[in-house]
Specification:
Elements lengths: L1 E7 L4 E9 L2 H13 L6 E11 L1 H12 L3 E4 L2 H11 L7 E3 L3 H10 L1
Parallel strand pairs: 2-3, 3-4, 4-5
Antiparallel strand pairs: 1-2
Helix pairs in contact: 1-2, 2-3
């Protein structure tokens, strides 16, 4: 199962993923992120209930972070994965468990 939902506010577009980020869902997520960014607002990709991420999914997350997509995650696995995939030079874009301050504080302590 895979689901992606879109929410917009004045400052950004939020895409939320539930399910597996693998196989055909990788292309769907990339297409949605590219389309969401066309209006010029920042895009946030939130991995809410993601159960698994294959190699293609990991590569996608790296590409999206390099393009400026803000990656966010809930849960231990996806929060760690987002941090591990984007930590080199992208510390300001890493948010885990919906707590931006906690992650930034943890980064300062290490």
């Amino acid at each position: 199962m895979f689901r992606i939902t879109k929410a917009e506010d004045r400052s950004k577009t939020i895409l939320t993923i539930d399910g597996q980020l693998s196989g055909d869902s990788v292309a769907a997520v990339e297409t949605c992120c590219n389309q969401a960014g066309l209006d010029g607002r920042p895009v946030q990709l939130y991995l809410r209930d993601v159960t698994s991420v294959d190699h293609a999914g990991q590569q996608l997350l790296r590409r999206l972070a390099a393009k400026g997509v803000i990656l966010a995650a809930s849960g231990v696995y996806t929060s760690y994965l987002v941090q591990a995939l984007t930590s080199v030079g992208n510390e300001s874009r890493i948010y885990g468990n919906g707590s931006e301050g906690a992650v930034k504080k943890a980064r300062r302590l290490t």
